[in-house]
Amino acid sequence: ERASALAGGLEPGALADGTPIPLLANLGSPDGSQKALEAGAEGVGLFRTEFLFLEQRMAPTVEQQREQYTRLLADFPGKKVVVRVLDAGADKPLEFLNDAHEDNPALGLRGLRSLRANEDILREQLTALADADAVSEADLWVMAPMVATVEETRYFVRLATEYGLKTAGVMVEVPSAALLADRVLREAAFASIGTNDLTQYTLAADRLLGSVAAYQSPWHPAVLRLIGEVGRAGTAADKPVGICGEAAADPLLAVVLVGLGATTLSMSPAAIADVRLSLRQHTLDQAKRLAGIALAADGAVEARDAVRAAIAGEA
Ligand code: PEP
Ligand code: MG
After folding, report:
1. What average pLDDT does the chain have?
2. Is 289 annotated as a binding residue?
3. Which pLDDT score, from 0 to 100, does residue 190 have?
4. pLDDT tens digits for 194-219?
5. Which residues face 159 on adjacent strands?
6. What are 147-186's pLDDT values in tens digits?
7. What would the mean pLDDT of 220-231 be, rounded to a whole number?
8. Residue whose CB lies within 8 A of the most ligand 1 atoms, among 29, 196, 201, 203, for a mutation test
9. Which residues line ligand 1 (CB under 6 A)?
10. What is the DSSP string of the chain?
């Protein structure tokens, strides 16, 4: 795994003190594999499966899904691949899943909620994933989007286990899940923080609405405090905590996220090189100190400025 990244002249993600921070890719279809590997991605931290369902009148068959998942896993032998089950609803509505009108779709039947209401679709997806896993050399992890409660975590992990998918986790992108991360991580094998939605829900600002775009900053100390809560829970339970939202692609924020307890970072392949470089410039102790500085700020802009100033002072 490490060898193939090195063969491409790309070192694995690590801090200045050698602490490994695997850098993974966010992919929206198996077509992105090549770019991810060229960028030295050490695996896939978020495989979004919506491409199989969007603009379809009906759900794809198990066979269609199996083919796509098999293709994806074949590109990452020996590497971790985290597949997220369908995240329908809100910004990704599907006519066969989200038929009722919702005034506030981001607060509606989306993510795991909508799969639970259409459990046959979730079961078919898990069947296809288990089939692909059986013939693959990749390390398949599965996770559910938009998990808000411990009970939902238990539900998803139980169902995934039923299909032989052993490493089942959840996305933490709703504040309730972050606040109860210790209990969520009693059930789940790992957590992956979706900072796009976590920011939207923490600051009550629609991520698609331009007029409130200023609120959509993962630098906000309220968001960072929630991430720190998950990081602490992960450390205590000795379970991985990844970041798979846009925040991980910001080289400076990436260091802060590691300081808050993130153990892996997943991002679009184009961002990997800059994040790799940035991590190499800080030790874990420095990252923790910078996280403390960001947490102590009053707002997002202040947090970023304070971290920048602190780094300039270190140099
Ligand atoms: C997120 O919410 O941060 C995330 C990674 O998921 P998506 O952007 O697909 O909602
Ligand atoms: Mg999300």
Report:
1. 95
2. no
3. 99
4. 999 999 999 999 999 999 999 999 99
5. none
6. 999 999 999 999 999 999 999 999 999 999 999 999 999 9
7. 98
8. 196
9. 46, 48, 87, 173, 194-197, 244-245
10. -HHHHHHTT-PPPB-TT--B--EEEEESSGGGHHHHHHTT--EEEEEE-GGGTTT-SSPPPHHHHHHHHHHHHHTSTTSEEEEEPP--BTTB--TTT--S--SSGGGSS-THHHHHHTHHHHHHHHHHHHHHHHT--SEEEEEESS--SHHHHHHHHHHHHHTT---EEEEE-SHHHHHTHHHHHHH-S-EEE-HHHHHHHHTT--TT-GGGGGG--TT-HHHHHHHHHHHHHHHHHT--EEE-SGGGGSHHHHHHHHHTT--EEEE-GGGHHHHHHHHTT--HHHHHHHHHHHHTSSSHHHHHHHHHHHHHHH-
Select from 27, 223, 244 the residue to mutate for testing ligand 1; criterion: most ligand atoms less than 8 Å from CB: 244
This prediction's pTM: 0.96
Determine the Cα–Cα distance for residues 258 and 274; give it in Å rounded to an integer. Answer: 15
Q: Which amino acid is at 70?
A: T
Residue type, 220: H
Residue whose CA is at the smallest distance from ligand 1 atom 6: 194
Tokens of 183: 């209990």
User: Nearest ligand to the C-alpha of residue 92?
Assistant: 1
Place of tokens 């998950």: 230
Question: Ligand 1: which atom is nearest the Cα of residue 173?
Answer: 2
